[in-house]
Description:
This protein has helices at 5-10, 64-86, 91-107, 109-132, and strands spanning 16-20, 23-32, 37-42. It is of the alpha+beta class. Helix 2 crosses helix 3. The longest helix has 24 residues, at 109-132. 2% of the residues are buried. The model is unreliable at 1-22 (pLDDT under 50).
Amino acid sequence: MAKKLDDIIATLPAQRRAQIDGRAMKLAVVHDLQAKKTYETNTRNICAQRDFMRFEVEDRKPDWLEEEFGKLESSAVTAIREVATSDIFDGGNKNYILNLMALLAVRSPEQRENMREFQARVAERVMDLKLKV
Length: 133
């Protein structure tokens, strides 16, 4: 008797240990029902929260900002490699690396949550002060 689709999906992901680049990583078998493909992937790539900055502006594409960040990240990779080979951390290379560090710091979900909490506390205090008067 053939298994029901629900029974097959319930057995996924079939995790196992694998050696990749000398590091043990969990792999999962993924069945893409729409594309009708089956493949293995790192479990970190399944249901991962992505951080995309998309917005609607008349003269820009919705992912314009992400594309610009990608250019910065590419330039920073080149700068990091140059600094690693030359041991000189100044000029344009320093600028790209520090900008990448700042970008990563403010884009992290933890940092955004800290900012949101801070703004909520400030708004609450302001409302408390307004209502006391």
